Amino acid sequence: MNIGFIGAGKVGCTLGRYFAEGGLHVAGYYSIPGNTSLEAAHFTNTHSFDSAEDLIKECDCVFVTVPDGLIQDVWNDIRRFDLEDKIICHCSGAMTARDAFDGIGETGASGYSVHPLFAVSDRYSTYLEMPGVFFTIEGDAGRMDEMTGLIGSLGNPVRTISGEDKTMYHCAAAAASNLICGVLDMSFDLMERCGFSEKDAREAMGALIRGNVEHVLDVGTQEGLTGPVERNDTGTVGKHLDCLEQADAMQAKEIYRLISCRLTDMAANRHNDRDYSQMRQLLGGRKQG
């Protein structure tokens, strides 16, 4: 199967190099401006195409690796070409294949969203981090086995999901990858109020953050939970809420309160012999059950 990329940014370069080194046949790139496709072709030892139509003629499978907001524009441009028996893919975590490739069945092609659960941060080095990354694939049933086999041949774990679940799946990924940054930013800000620099706060918290993440990934969130909420220590939690109010950190207080409500449910599930009713009342959280 010849694989081509329309779009030569971070995702296109990363997947192209990773696919090529994994033994898949990457034909090359087309992009605007053309110098980016030349650079991507050089990086992957492939070919730079002069037009999208030329690339499509050469390829059996085309990955549209442009920003999410441009995927549909690219599709509307290329759907006029001969796409019979072609596979068209995008790598957006949020969009379904149907959302991106409206009316693809009328062209004789099959559409898929192929999403690596990984933050691609660099155009030329992230491919080194791709082994072991989890991929999800969503799209047409007809050639799904072919697509899962293609990605699976690289040694990566692969799971298919339904289009109906795509938004919730992406929300879950955003919570793990993005929302956690907000919680950490809140933590670093509170450390700065204690006299730490932002850099010192990150260094001081490093071992705590890494150790906790590794522990949670090993045993799960419920078993990995520690701290005053898990211990049912209403005195300490009350002091936390008071200090945030006194510091005029009301947004931080609300974040702390809402997340602690979730932690209370987790702790109650773990410790059936403990009464967390006072903790729930302190936090203003709902009763479980």
Written overview of the protein:
- The chain is of the alpha/beta class.
- It is 52% helix and 12% strand.
- The chain has twelve helices and eight strands.
- It has helices at 10-21, 34-44, 52-58, 68-78, 97-100, 144-152, 166-193, 198-219, 221-224, 234-246, 250-270, 277-283, and strands at residues 2-6, 25-30, 47-48, 61-64, 87-90, 110-116, 135-139, 158-160.
- Strands 3-2-1-4-5-6-7-8 form an eight-stranded mixed sheet, sandwiched between helices.
- Helix 1 links the parallel strand 1 (2-6) and strand 2.
- Helix 7 (166-193) crosses helix 8 (198-219) and helix 10 packs antiparallel against helix 11 (250-270).
- It is elongated, with a radius of gyration of 24 Å.
- The protein starts with a strand and ends in a 6-residue tail after the last helix.
Element string (H = helix, E = strand): EHEHEHEHEHEEHEHHHHHH
- Gross morphology: elongated
Sequence stretches where pLDDT stays below 50 over 5 or more residues: none
β-strand amount: 5-15%
> Helix/strand/pairing class, anyone?
alpha/beta
**Over all CA atoms, what is the radius of gyration?**
24 Å
- Biggest β-sheet: strands ordered side by side in the sheet: 3-2-1-4-5-6-7-8
Taking the sheet with the most strands, its summary is: 8 strands, mixed
Number of strands: 8
